[in-house]
Write a structure and sequence with these properties.
CATH architecture of the largest domain: Alpha-Beta Barrel
CATH class of the largest domain: Alpha Beta
Structural class: alpha/beta
Helix content: 25-40%
CATH superfamily of the largest domain: Metal-dependent hydrolases
Protein name: 5-methylthioadenosine/S-adenosylhomocysteine deaminase
CATH topology of the largest domain: TIM Barrel
Organism: Butyricicoccus faecihominis
Number of helices: 16
Radius of gyration: 21 Å
Keywords: Hydrolase
């Protein structure tokens, strides 16, 4: 495809007007202000459009669209114990398939090109991910509340399938990660076993870390260590790790994350809605920690429109830390694009630059909220809506365009998801 006469945000999120961008063999092959002589196939009229890197949602639980609006107005521990866990016990692979498709559709429609997910029901999730064409770092949520060995757990068997059968599928669209749900939902020996497995397999790890004050303080009571120090002591950070939330980190925790190049998946909407608190973004920036962005699941957000989290990330921490200069639009957009790609280990993604994967989105600028466009990056962060996304491309393939999903039967998916949620609610 050749994007013609289109405005774009370059790799530094500076606006360039009237550009031509050629996509070939899944990569960005040309960027310039003159039309290239080479034939790139379909020509895309870029008038009143803004091209930029697609977004990376690095913390989600895709099948939890089934729970949208169900578990509300509760603190995290009651939210999990009274509502989420009982509902999840009734989910099966077929329900997870449709819930995952619905999540992917929502992400594609708001410009997300890749997501990191932590959940169960792989036989339902895998077909949904494959069929959609989106990129995904998938991990199997691991919880254990007794003295079981890692090798005896269903999660271990799923991890073997993930790493040995599915990892690297679809030209690298799928990456298999390992997972510890959290310190409070696991045991030290299982944490150490997962750490060893990841190190031996060269896998990445996805965890929850210091999401709530209760989680953080009870870990210190149990082990005499903060969750970050605990995970470090048991070897988790010996492998590349994405740690979700990180709201209640203490001073030494920031040094631990930086020392091990841990990426933080900041989830502002979920943290606000569950009243978990405010991550210390100024300290993370000071330490040079890689901060990426996640929506969390639809039970705690309640949507997967990452532009909502981009907006919240751009404004909430200014207010909480009383610093209007905190987080420039370029920093926010870096968090939602390149930083997310790096957290997934996708070093050739997340930039609108020649040679990088053509994971792109197009935003309609001919809207009231985008007018006037005095600063395009500011408009994306502070004004754009998910519905402004007109095209989402992954590895050069258009998966969403002008309200049409190329790989998902959205009407069927909506109906089937509602049907399965209704059935589960009748059984609760």
């Amino acid at each position: 495809m050749l994007f013609c006469n289109i405005d774009l945000l370059d790799e530094n999120f500076a606006l360039k007007r009237g550009q031509y961008v050629g996509v070939k063999d899944g990569k960005i092959a040309y960027i310039g202000d003159t039309e290239p002589q080479e034939d790139y196939g379909e020509r895309y009229d870029g008038r009143h459009r803004l091209l930029m890197s697609g977004f990376y949602n690095v913390h989600s639980h895709a099948p939890m669209t089934l729970l949208r609006g169900y578990a509300e107005n509760l603190p995290l521990q009651r939210w999990l114990g009274e509502k989420v866990f009982p509902f999840e016990d009734k989910i099966d692979d077929e329900a997870a398939y449709y819930g995952t498709q619905l999540s992917i559709a929502e992400m594609l429609a708001s410009g997300t090109v890749s997501f990191s997910d932590m959940y169960f029901f792989f036989d339902g999730m895998m077909p949904a991910i494959r069929e959609s064409g989106i990129k995904c770092n998938l991990s199997r949520g691991l919880t254990v509340f007794d003295d079981s060995d890692y090798e005896s757990l269903a999660a271990y068997k799923d991890n073997l399938r993930l790493l040995n059968e599915w990892n690297g599928e679809l030209d690298g669209h799928l990456i298999g990660d390992l997972c510890i749900h959290g310190e409070y939902t696991s045991t030290p020996k299982v944490v150490e076993a997962v750490a060893a497995h990841a190190k031996d397999a060269g896998a990445r790890i996805h965890i929850h870390l210091s999401e709530t004050q209760t989680e953080h303080e009870e870990c210190k009571q149990r082990h005499g260590l903060t969750p970050a120090a605990y995970m470090e002591a048991h070897g988790i950070f010996d492998s590349p790790t994405t740690a979700a939330h990180c709201v209640w980190l203490e001073d030494e925790d920031f040094d631990i994350l930086k020392k091990h190049n841990v990426s933080v998946a900041c989830c502002p909407a979920s943290n606000l809605k569950l009243a978990s608190g405010y991550a210390n973004i100024p300290k993370m920036l000071e330490k040079g920690i890689n901060i990426a962005l996640g929506t969390d699941g639809a039970a705690s957000n309640n949507n997967l429109n990452i532009l909502q989290d981009i907006y919240l990330f751009g404004v909430v921490y200014k207010g909480f830390y009383h610093d209007s200069t905190l987080l420039t639009p370029a920093q926010v957009l870096h968090t939602a694009t390149r930083a997310g790609a790096l957290s997934q280990g996708r070093t050739d993604c997340g930039k609108l630059a020649v040679g990088y994967k053509a994971d792109l989105c197009v935003i309609d600028t001919d809207t009231p909220q985008f007018t006037p466009m005095t600063d395009a990056a500011c408009n994306v962060v502070y004004a754009a809506q998910g519905a402004d996304v007109r095209l989402t491309m992954v590895d050069g393939e258009v998966l969403y365009r002008d309200g049409e999903f190329k790989t998902i039967d959205i009407e069927k998916v909506k109906a089937e998801t509602q049907k399965r949620t209704d059935a589960i609610l009748r059984r609760l």
